[in-house]
Design brief:
By secondary structure, this protein is an alpha/beta fold. Among the domains are: 1-44 and 156-186, DNA polymerase, domain 1; 50-148, Beta Barrel (OB fold (Dihydrolipoamide Acetyltransferase, E2P)), CATH 2.40.50.140; 259-288 and 305-429, Rossmann fold; 461-619, Rossmann fold, CATH 3.40.50. The chain has 25 helices and 22 strands. The strands form four sheets. A seven-stranded mixed beta sheet has the order 6-7-4-3-2-5-8. It has a seven-stranded parallel beta sheet with strand order 12-13-11-14-15-10-16, sandwiched between helices. Helix 14 links the parallel strand 12 and strand 13. The radius of gyration is 32 Å and the shape is globular. The two termini are 32 Å apart. The structure holds adenosine-5'-diphosphate and magnesium ion.
Length: 704
């Protein structure tokens, strides 16, 4: 233990740091100890094995390395503007080297007529290129060798740069650290058998090479090992949480398949379940009957029929004498679920209740009272459900729909709603999430996938149209309405300016009225600024078919189910993210008719927007779209992931490292299978390392 202490010493004691720079490192980079600095990895490297030619330099050149002869050296300007200018020539041209500090020392040490390697960042002043403050290395056998490697570049800030902690300064500090420490100071955290199996460098080597690789191969091996480490320990943690939970938490046993479930299945179910739905219900049923707690993520594409699966699970709870709840992210969606589920269970003698922020006063009091008395069997609502004053006497199953809108915190609150055993938890996602994200964000849950759509669904035809096509689009709308179909027109929600947002929608509505005049046509309008009651009124008119067109903001994104609607027109498509577009498109194609999605945009599109639109016109498969979304945006920007510290990897990137993650998870699972508490000697290093990482994971391990 003692031998690792050096890495714990405060950063200001490192040679070349001191109190002022130490303060800065703490403030700017949260670096407090030598270990922290050691673990701040470069974000890129400059390949110093490659030389640039002066002729090829241009204003876009960044960091360059030139091999040439120092021709002249003279000072220019005076006072504060005094600088040293060197003329540097290679076999293709000449460039100025400029220094503003250390002039007299440089004048003494640089040798005119000698061959150097100059390394630095190109400066472009009104078209004249120069190389300010280059690092100079004289060309000798050894000098070339020293220069010929990858120079690490660290994330920096203006303040750090000013205090000499720029790329070069940081490199110097790293060198100092490596002069001070021994290989034993960086304790190995992987067992030998793993290191051998994967041909990893040791942990010390990996960290040394991530800072100072001498070859591309070395860098690659180091990166791979360190990425693996990050993903592996996270998986080990997640799977350990899952294992502990399985071992220690008693689930409420649901042994019976009873009257309600069977009556519903035999007499009420309006269609045949798909094979995938049946399989998933079996998977869930197995958990529920096992005496373990169900903790399952249910993935399925838009329209794959997750709701009915959720409902059937609630019926199992009921048959075993328990209540259930279903939590949805928006009022509209919650109400739809309430209406839909109430209809499904009509005649089964089941009490369904509804609770949201809009249920107030006496109505609310009465509902809570009935809930507390156990009169309500199924409670459906928004996140109002998790408030402390909502008391279930016998909550057996909690379902959250479209989970990515809820935080993990909400999941934890649901846990508290039933004592002594927590309720079973089923999490349903709106659109599929990429596998790598599911494995990390929900890595402690079991996963079920509905990978089949109900029969008879036609592919939704998706096209991209510009403003110039507007007339034809209007004509098409009229045709569809004549056939008896209904149409959605969705406007983007402009978060920075709700006013503009509304204006956008209102202008669109005004224009529409000209082509679709009343009373021949009826148009519903729904947006976020409306009162719940008015929204509901407009929605109902559309659902009942009293209006042909629904003009809306993204409030209709999730869940709305009107099978007769066959056209989805999205305005300013470029403003929407992929998963949102896919959700919106999923509002049509729910009936037997051919459906269409029309993506309207302006003429000017960013590369990324174009790519999103191509993805949408190219496929209807939500799983493929989720992967494309991850590739385009990166894991940190996916909906619902921002708040989750769990994705803060140093090196690993879930959009690129699927393979490493997959292996890391498999290895972790195999180890825990044989040694759930990591007590075996062979896993001693894992055990030790997990303990040192305890704090990092504490925040979210409690939750799930
Ligand atoms: P999502 O998975 O997007 O939540 P829903 O549960 O809302 O999908 O189901 C979409 C539509 O498909 C609903 O109208 C539902 O009644 C219908 N549906 C679900 N399962 C089937 C099935 N097996 N056969 C036919 N229609 C189904
Ligand atoms: Mg749904």
């Amino acid at each position: 233990m003692q031998s690792t202490a050096i890495l714990d010493s405060p950063i200001e004691y490192l040679k070349g740091v001191g109190p002022a720079r130490g303060e800065l490192l703490k403030k700017e980079l949260s670096v407090f100890t030598l270990r922290d600095l050691l673990m701040s990895f470069p974000f890129r490297y400059v390949d110093k094995t490659k030389f640039h030619k002066v002729r090829d330099l241009n204003e876009d050149s960044e960091t360059v390395q030139i091999r040439g002869i120092l021709r002249r050296l003279e000072t220019a300007g005076d006072g504060r503007k005094k600088r040293l200018v060197g003329r540097f020539r290679d076999d293709t041209g000449v460039i100025d080297l400029v220094w503003f500090t250390g002039v007299s020392w440089l004048q003494k040490s640089l040798q005119i007529g000698k061959e150097y390697v100059a390394f630095g960042k190109i400066n472009n002043f009104k078209g004249k290129l120069s190389l300010p403050h280059p690092e100079m290395e004289i060309v000798t056998e050894e000098g070339i060798k020293k220069a010929s490697s990858f120079a690490p570049v660290y994330p920096s800030t203006e303040k750090l740069n000013l205090k000499g902690l720029d790329a070069k300064g940081r490199r110097k500090l790293m060198k100092t650290i490596f002069e001070k420490i021994q290989p034993t100071d960086i304790r190995e955290n992987l067992p030998n058998y793993m290191i051998e199996k994967f041909n990893f460098p040791s942990r010390f080597e990996a960290i040394q090479h991530i800072h100072f690789p001498t070859t591309a191969k070395e860098l690659e091996r180091a990166t791979k090992r360190l990425k693996f480490e990050e993903l592996f320990f996270l998986q080990l943690r997640l799977l350990q949480i899952r294992g502990h939970r399985k071992a220690t938490i008693k689930g409420i046993p649901f042994p019976a398949i009873g009257d309600k479930f069977l009556t519903f299945f035999n007499e009420k179910l309006p269609f045949e379940l798909t094979g995938a739905q049946k399989r998933v219900i079996k998977e869930i049923r197995r958990d529920l009957g096992s005496g373990r707690q169900l903790n399952r993520l249910l993935q399925g594409d838009v329209g794959s029929g997750k709701t009915i699966v959720g409902l059937m699970c609630m019926l199992i709870a009921l048959d075993n004498g328990y209540q259930s709840c279903l939590m949805a992210p928006t009022e509209i969606l919650a109400q739809q679920h309430f209406a839909g589920i109430s209809e499904y269970v009509e005649g089964l003698d089941i009490e369904v209740g509804f609770l949201s922020g809009s249920v107030k006063g006496k109505k609310r009091a009465a509902l809570l009272e009935r809930l507390k008395n156990g009169e309500i069997d199924i409670l459906i609502g928004t996140h109002a459900l998790i408030e402390d004053w909502v008391v279930f006497p016998k909550l057996g199953l909690a379902i959250t729909d479209e989970q990515h809108r809820f935080g993990v915190k909400h999941r934890a609150k649901l846990w508290q709603k039933s004592k002594p055993s927590p309720p079973h938890i089923l999490v349903m996602t709106a659109t599929p999430i990429p596998r790598t994200l599911a494995m990390t964000l929900y890595g402690d849950l079991e996963v079920s996938v509905i990978d089949e759509l109900p029969p008879g669904r036609k592919e939704i035809k998706t096209v991209h149209r510009h403003e110039g096509h507007r007339l034809r689009v209007l004509g098409f709308m009229k045709e569809e309405i004549t056939k008896g179909r209904q149409i959605y027109i969705v406007f983007p929600l402009i978060q920075e300016s709700e006013k503009l947002d509304l204006q956008n929608l209102e202008n669109g509505y005004e224009l529409l009225l000209r082509d679709f005049p009343m009373p021949e046509y009826q148009i519903s309008v729904v947006h976020g600024k409306m009162k719940a009651k008015d929204k509901d009124f407009e929605m109902q008119r559309f659902i009942k078919g009293e209006t042909q067109i629904m003009v809306a903001t993204t409030v209709i994104e999730v869940g709305v189910n009107v099978p007769n609607a066959s056209v989805m027109i999205i305005e300013n498509t470029e403003r929407f993210g992929l998963s949102q577009l896919h959700q919106l498109r999923g509002r049509v194609g729910r009936g037997a008719e051919q459906s269409y999605c029309i993506l309207m945009t302006g003429y000017k599109l960013s590369k990324e927007a174009r790519s999103r639109i191509q993805t949408m016109t190219g496929t209807n498969d939500g799983f493929k779209i989720a992967e494309a979304d991850l590739q385009l945006r990166g894991p940190g920007n996916m909906e619902g992931t921002q708040q989750s510290g769990i994705l803060n990897f140093k090196l690993a990137d879930l959009s690129k490292d699927q393979r490493i993650l997959q292996i890391a998870r498999e290895v972790a699972a195999r180890i825990l299978d044989q040694d759930p508490n990591l007590e075996k000697e062979i896993n001693a290093r894992l055990n030790w390392y997990m303990k040192t990482q305890g704090k990092k994971y504490k925040a979210w391990s409690r939750i799930s």
